[in-house]
Design goal:
Distance between the termini: 13 Å
Largest sheet: 7 strands, mixed
Order of helices and strands: EEEHEHHHEEEHHHHHEEEE
Number of strands: 11
Structural class: alpha+beta
Radius of gyration: 19 Å
Length: 300
């Protein structure tokens, strides 16, 4: 394909881990950031509206711009400059994959502006976006859509990221309970121990395997499949209200987990309805269907 002068990318947010699948499981959600990028004679010009406006950098330090530069280091053919407009709907630092979505958007825009086919360059896009994150669960969900299983491999002094997309059972209706406070992944990862008891590791491994079945074929197993002993309890001090809400939902039979690094809670309902007696003070209820498309590209 030729080299376009403008590209528009729409990328969904995501929920990662989904209970036991730490750095391995992700779910794309119908909550989108949109990025328009056009070729400019020089420099980097960025406009941001919506989430993060006035808070994120509007120069080369912007995450989308950094992802573009990283992708061009791989595929080449970087233009002399860019103009970019970001319309953000994914809340920042809430556990809904905003940084991964930005990285996917930037890497996708870069390969398209370099004259490459984004579908054929999915491996490159995933490597760039997941490499910036350090794990592929959110990035894979934003890129591929649906329910994803992600992993990494290393060899010859290189790290590669991989993912497979699976169809989510249509009876699963996610509801995000978006916390009014922020949480940094770097902070919550710092609460995790270097070692966990063997029994907890075995428990979580079995639940992760069960989650793949539950999300794709047997949603009635989700309550058991979203149990975790690997990370959520260790992170409880960072967002006790979120952890308490997860417990309250699960006591009522609603499969629930901390979304990614938190503090948002993801409830996996049958009908998008939550129990009426829940204390939701400090949380915004957002029904978010599963996105089945992933990153969508339109060339101008």
């Amino acid at each position: 394909m030729g080299r376009p002068r403008e590209v528009r990318v729409r990328v969904p947010g995501s929920s990662a881990n989904l209970g036991p699948g730490f750095d391995a499981l992700g779910l794309a959600l119908c909550l989108y950031d949109e990025v328009e990028v056009s070729v400019a004679p020089e420099g980097v010009q960025i406009e941001v509206s919506g989430e993060g406006a006035g808070r994120v950098p509007c120069d080369e330090a912007h995450l989308v711009a950094r992802a573009m530069r990283t992708a061009w280091d791989v595929v080449g053919d970087a233009p002399p400059g860019i103009r970019m407009r970001c319309r953000n709907a994914i809340p920042h630092s809430r556990g809904l994959g905003s940084s991964a979505a930005a990285a996917v958007a930037g890497a996708t825009a870069a390969v398209v502006l370099a004259g490459r086919d984004a579908e054929l360059e999915r491996d490159t896009i995933l490597d760039v976006a997941a490499g910036m994150e350090g794990h592929a669960d959110n990035a894979a969900a934003s890129l591929l859509g649906g329910f994803v299983v992600a992993w990494e491999s290393s060899g010859n002094n290189s790290q590669r990221f991989h993912a497979v997309r699976l169809e989510t059972h249509p009876g699963i209706h996610p509801v995000a309970l978006v916390a009014g406070v922020e949480s940094l992944t770097s902070t919550t990862r710092g609460l995790l121990p270097e070692r966990v008891p063997l029994a907890d590791a075995a428990f979580t491994g079995s639940r992760t395997a069960l989650a793949v079945l539950a999300f794709t074929q047997r949603p009635e197993l989700l309550l058991a499949a979203t149990e975790d002993r690997l990370h959520q309890n260790y992170r409880r001090p960072a967002y006790p209200a979120s952890a308490d809400l997860v417990d309250a939902l699960r006591r009522r039979g609603i499969p629930a987990a901390i979304s990614g690094a938190g503090p948002t809670v993801l409830a996996l309902t049958e009908d998008g309805v939550l129990p009426s007696d829940l204390d939701l003070h400090g949380f915004t209820v957002r029904p978010l269907p599963v996105d089945g498309v992933g990153a969508a590209v339109e060339v101008g």
